Amino acid sequence: MSLHGRTNSVRENDSKPGKRKSSRKVLFFTLFVGIAGGVAALLYNVSGKQAVASEVVVYQSPTCGCCNEWVSHLRSNGFTVSTRDRPNMQPIKQEFGVQPGLQSCHTAVVDGYFIEGHVPANDIKRLLSEKPAISGLTVPGMPMGSPGMEGHRKDSYAVLAVDPDNSTSVYAQD
Prior knowledge:
Layout: H1 17-46, E1 55-60, H2 65-76, E2 80-85, H3 90-95, E3 107-110, E4 113-117, H4 121-130, E5 136-139, E6 158-162, E7 168-173
Parallel strand pairs: 1-2, 4-5
Antiparallel strand pairs: 1-3, 3-4, 5-6, 6-7
């Protein structure tokens, strides 16, 4: 007898051939769905369209409207963003090693990289996916047409990768 007054016995249906076939079908179906889901997840990740999980911390002047527009651009592209208003941005730029010729209005930090200025979200996603041995990305100045600087014209600009020795190379061209 069990604890609840019922007897423990093997159910008669468990040993029937039809029951075993049904159990095998469920097992094979479960395995198929699991494998198919794993392959789909792998293909989704390989395509570069993975979900963005890292939080971006943006340091900005409390009076800068384009910074808020850039933050909106990041959020609409799947980033979680927190902002920190700073009346003086120079100490932040110095802390993260952003050289004067590479500076813009705001500085962000994500996964140990600095993001200076109006860097497009797709370039940040690529950075986080590839994880190169660089200090960060920058779009120096405030080029018209860059994310957060949309307007009546669109200037050509480069997204620069900044190496630990402060040398730069073109990471992306817009």
